[in-house]
Amino acid sequence: MNPMQKKNLEVRRTYNEHLGKSVVKALEANGFKAVYAGSSEEAVNKVMELVPEGSSVGVPGSSTIRELGLFEELQARNCRVFEHWDPSLAPEDRSRRWEEENTSDVFLSSSNGVTLDGMLVNIDGTGNRVAAMAWARNRIIFVVGINKVSRDIQSATQRIRDVATPLNAISKGIDIPCANTGFCVNCKVPNRFCRATLVLERAPFGRDVHVIIVGEELGY
Ligand code: SF4
Questions:
Q1: CATH number (domain holding residue 88)
Q2: Is 16 inside a domain boundary?
């Protein structure tokens, strides 16, 4: 790494910390239990502090959780992990697996977006993930990379459509218009991804909701 690369890395780390801590304060003001983690390793440790040994953990479609290597960590702690991205899962068993995910002791996900004023924005195709985010009896943990911070609901929604959805589609090899253009065209194709949008303006009543903002790019 040359001196300029080192300097830029340090500048970016400081910026991420300032931005991440500002978002944490905004989330706390909205009733979320929020913390900042400066690195992926720190984020993994914070997640594991919140997951009791031997508990069941539901993980919806989230590249962030997989990128962090949390499956391996959870299995090492004797947790039963439910995930519908399991390639051995028969298509007819998928809806049962969604229910298992959503009713596990802990629901572990990322969020598609987080705003500067502490709201969480998510868009689903099927709606299983936003359903679990809106209501369940279990603990929910969001792990969110700094790349998902946006100024407000509108810009968060735009980022999800222009960036997260095309990347998600490319990673799954799904042919939808934004995967080819590189931005949202508000398509009307039968396999359009964007169907159900949820904004958590505050932590829902009676829910144990944790948010870990990570000072690194994670997921889409
Ligand atoms: S509306 Fe269509 S083009 Fe836009 S992000 Fe969603 S799937 Fe892609």
A1: 3.40.50
A2: yes
User: Could you report the per-residue pLDDT of 69-88, keeping only the tens digit for each?
Assistant: 999 999 999 999 999 988 88
Count of the separate structural domains present in the chain: 1
Asked if residue 170 belongs to a domain, the reply is no
Q: Given this model, what pLDDT does residue 91 score?
A: 87
Residue 67 lies in a domain: yes
Minimum-distance ligand 1 atom for the alpha carbon of 184: 4
Question: How many other CB atoms are found less than 10 A from the CB of residue 147?
Answer: 17
d(CA 82, CA 10): 38
**Cα of 189 from ligand 1 centre, angstroms:** 9
The rounded distance, in Å, linking the Cα atoms of 70 and 218 is: 13
- The partner residues of 197 in beta bridges, in order of sequence, read 123
Q: Is the CB of 185 under 6 A from ligand 1?
A: yes
Question: Is residue 45 a part of any domain in this protein?
Answer: yes
Verify whether ligand 1 is closer than 6 Å to residue 157 (CB atom): no
Q: Give every residue of the chain whose pLDDT is below 50, as ranges.
A: none
